[in-house]
Each structure stands twice: as C-alpha cells, then as structure tokens.
Amino acid sequence: MKLNKIYNGDCLKVMKTFPDNSIDTIITDPPYGLSFMGKKWDYDVPKVELWQEALRVLKPGGTALIFAGSRTQHRMACKKTGRPFIGIEQDKEYCKIARCRINATRLEPKKLF
C-alpha cells in the first residue's frame, strides 16, 4: 500500500489488499440507492461487507466521513442490523412521509428504471 495515493478500482477489492488498522481517515460518497438518472450503479446502498471491510482497515480512533442521502440513509443501518426498516418519529406528519418513502423502496427493480 502506497501512502498519499488515490486508488482507482472497486473499493471492496482494493480495501481487501490493505492491512488491518492501516487507514487514518475514510471519506466516501457511496451510492444513495435512488437510481439516480436511471443509473444501475445507484440502485441500492452498499452491502454490509463493504462497511465491515472499511472498519477493518480503519485505525482505532480513525475518522470516517460518509455522505448519505436523507431518503435512504436508514437503509444502510437496516442492512447492518438485518432489519427490513427501522425508525422512530414523533411527528405524525413526518411518519406519513416516511411510510411513503418506505413503500417506494419496496418497488420491484424493473419499476424503478
């Protein structure tokens, strides 16, 4: 692993070549799972395996800046916990909005494109 280098490649494959506890900071803007402009790469949020690998290479006390879409950030947490959806909201109006968003994610992939 070379220091101060930007690697171009599949992040999961590249991280697997790094030693444990070798990275000070991770900055990432992963797919949001919105199917942005019909792009296949943005159909879903990253798999749990990616985050496990990121934690493996991150040094103890290291930092991670992870961007996420406000409409789909909960899906990353759900994948990690194995739950289909999690959420707690006091505001009844926002609960209606959240239910609509959850129902929208249950669409078949072919309906999103």
In brief:
By secondary structure, this protein is an alpha+beta fold. The chain contains five helices and two strands.
Task: Kindly describe this structure.
With 113 residues, this protein is α+β, with helices and mostly antiparallel strands. The protein has one domain. It has helices spanning 11-15, 48-57, 73-81, 92-105, 109-112; strands at 23-28, 58-66. Strands 1-2 form a two-stranded parallel sheet. α2 links the parallel β1 (23-28) and β2 (58-66). The longest helix has 14 residues, at 92-105.
Using brief descriptors, characterize the structure shown.
13% strand; 5 helices; 113 residues; single chain; two-stranded parallel ribbon
Number of helices: 5
Would you count the extended β strands for me?
A: 2
Largest sheet data:
2 strands, parallel
> What distance lies between the first and last C-alpha atoms, to the nearest angstrom?
39 Å
Write down the domain tally.
1
Strand order of the largest sheet: 1-2
User: Low-confidence parts lasting 5 or more residues at pLDDT below 50?
Assistant: 108-113
Give the class from helix and strand content and strand pairing: alpha+beta
Radius of gyration: 16 Å
Q: What is the 3D form? A: elongated
What is the mean pLDDT? 77
Helix content: 25-40%
SSE run: HEHEHHH
Strand content: 5-15%
Task: Summarize the SSE layout with pairings.
Layout: H1 11-15, E1 23-28, H2 48-57, E2 58-66, H3 73-81, H4 92-105, H5 109-112
Parallel strand pairs: 1-2
